[in-house]
Amino acid sequence: xxxxxxSQFAVSVITAAVVLGVMQLAVAYCIYFERKIAGWIQDRYxxxxxxxxxxxxxxxxxxxxxxxxxxxxxxxDKVLFVAAPAIIFLVASIGFAVIPWGGRLEWNGRLYDxxxxxxxxxVLYVLGVASLGVYGVVIGGWASNNKYSFYxxxxxxxxxxxxxIPLGVCVLIVVTMTGTLRLEEIVLPQTEYWHGVIPKxxxxxxxxxxxxxxxxxxxxxxxxxxxxxxxxxxxVGGYHTEYSALKFGMFFLAEYAHMITSSALIAVLFFGxxxxxxxxxTDPAATSLAAVLAKAAVLxxxxxxxxxxxxxxxxxxxxxxxxxxxxxxxxGLIPVTxxxxxxxxxxxxxxxxxxxxxxxxxxxVVVAAMLAYAGLRRVPVTGRQSDxxxxxGTAAAGIGG
Length: 401
Hints:
Blueprint lengths: L1 H4 L2 H34 L15 H11 L10 H17 L9 E4 L2 E4 L8 H22 L3 H32 L4 H5 L5 E2 L3 E2 L2 H4 L1 H14 L11 H4 L9 H26 L18 H26 L7 H28 L6 H21 L25
Antiparallel strand pairs: 1-2, 3-4
Helix pairs in contact: 2-3, 2-11, 2-12, 3-11, 4-5, 4-11, 5-6, 6-9, 6-13, 9-11, 11-12, 13-14
């Protein structure tokens, strides 16, 4: 039994249990922090009535979802109706498996990876798991047998499939720079320094790829301003209109779990993962228990900051129209990411993939070309009252003439 506890498998199981437990607790309190941030942005009080400073508010919300009546309408496909929230919640919760949370731990002369699974295809695993979230959404919309839910499911499917393309290309840019699909190996080059001072984080090489990946993460999580799939003014509640009680809560838990996983992926790909500049405890060579805890704390802080930005954007930007949403993906983000990918491949071919001057300069050129194209192209103006044809029968009545 003692030998089992000293195996890498046991460490992976313990890591999975700890991370999953912390993630579920964090998901609950993400809702609390979102309310507090909304109150701060809107210059009003946030939730502060349940427990000290409102800290028991998430527990009250959870009890509310559990104790509410679980209604399953007669007209739905019951099997798929029940399976949809479980699918989307499961998919959002297993993406963390390949995230390197704490580097390596030395214990009794052996090294253990603080990671659930070390996969050679770690990046592909994350992209594959993220793409599975479409199934839960479209199944929930279709199984509800409701037009509003079905429209919401179709919208979400089109949105998620569209934004997975630039998301995948941005990840490929990082893979091209580092030459590996392993997330733990993507972190290692980012722990180096320029002149012993500035960290070589990937965001300094390809800042535009980071911005696009962040936007795509918002769209993949159906967060505002990309929440067209559940627009209350148009679709009542979107693909989860017919859901209630705990099933309804699972959709929200999945949304916040997706935010945590995508924020962790962004931190690993562009911000050095668990590494914090000038702190020796977060260096890859540090393998003590204190170093593991410090690395986990650093990565958690980066994830929390990314989630704060997502919440800030939600409460400050208006929602897109659906045609604007699709135009942004297909005519904006996809061409730009393809240009960045060509740049990354060219730098790799000439051996300059880790050259800041060439990489950052190429990003500046791409941004300048994008702005020049946006400024020079002609955008047709539609919807003017003078351009609209008269309604039949109104001219004879002297209306609108």
